[in-house]
Design goal:
Strand content: 35-45%
Order of helices and strands: EEEHEE
Helix content: 10-25%
CATH superfamily: YebC, transcriptional regulation domain
Oligomer: single chain
CATH topology: Alpha-Beta Plaits
Radius of gyration: 13 Å
CATH architecture: 2-Layer Sandwich
Number of strands: 5
């Protein structure tokens, strides 16, 4: 499995109390938005993050992989 870094931008400046809902992601606030940046192990984990955004009633403005390519998850065996 591979890890990719994602950036999600949501409307509004989220409070610190929501950081625990997005464990491992960094929050950056500015201009009426919050940017969440962090490593995501796979598509299932990405879907979980997106479902949390939805469950909290947040408006997702952008979701983007920001690294050039996936990299092996730490501790995973490489093939090839």
């Amino acid at each position: 499995m591979a890890v990719r870094t994602y950036r999600l931008i949501v409307e509004g400046e989220l409070g610190d109390q929501l950081e625990s809902s997005f464990d491992g992601m960094t929050f950056t606030h500015g201009e009426g938005t919050t940017t969440l940046t962090g490593d995501v192990r796979d598509q299932a984990e990405l879907q979980g993050v997106l479902q949390r955004v939805s469950a909290l009633g947040l408006i997702l403005l952008e979701a983007r992989a920001i690294d050039d390519r996936a990299r092996p998850r730490p501790g995973a065996e490489s093939t090839g």
